[in-house]
Amino acid sequence: MDLFLWIKSLHVISIIAWMAGMLYLPRLFVYHVDAEIGSVQSETFKVMERRLLKAIINPSMIAAWVFGLWMAYELEAWTDGWFHAKFALVFLMSGVHGHLSKCVKQFAADENTRSARYYRILNEVPTVLMIFIVILVIGKPF
To answer: CB–CB of 77/86 below 8 Å?
Structure first.
């Protein structure tokens, strides 16, 4: 198989893993908000959130960026308008990732101040970004 197809496959696998984590972590926060501080349930959520972030979300984001930039280099996509828009949205997705990382730290320190409603809304942000990213990559509208 051509090296480019391996890179592309690894990029797609990385994106799937990254998105799975980005969609699951805020959902954990929704339930964690209602757990009493210091309870077994709260401590269990802390472990789940930390492991999800460290073992799945962080490595898959790094891999997605590495393989994505490698593909962009191979395709010479730097001058394409769709790529600029996609890059901006992936950069924004990475910012959401950073915010979720901060939330994990706040929950770990029992310092969360946000509501379950906030996390329900935040849970939709990666989905909306993903929709636009996929449209840009597949449709290349400009």
So the answer is: no
64, with CB counted inside 10 A (0-12, 13-18, 19+), is buried
Write the burial class of residue 26 (CB in 10 Å: 0-12 exposed, 13-18 middle, 19+ buried): buried
With H, G, I as helix, E, B as strand and everything else as coil, classify residue 94.
Answer: helix
Element counts in the chain: helices (H) and strands (E): 6, 0
Give which of 39, 35, 14, 19 is closest to 130, Cα–Cα: 19
- Cα angle value 57/62/63 (rounded, 5°): 100
Delimit the domains of the chain by residue range. Answer: 3-139
Mark the ranges of the chain whose per-residue pLDDT is less than 50.
none
Q: State CA 142 to chain mean position distance.
A: 25
Give the span between the Cα atoms of 26 and 41, in whole angstroms.
16
- Pair of tokens at residue 56: 């799945």
Query: What's the predicted TM-score (pTM) here?
Result: 0.94
- 109/105 Cα distance (integer angstroms): 6
* The token pair that represents 8 in the structure block: 């592309």
**What's the CA angle centered on 114, arms 111 and 116, to 5 degrees?**
120
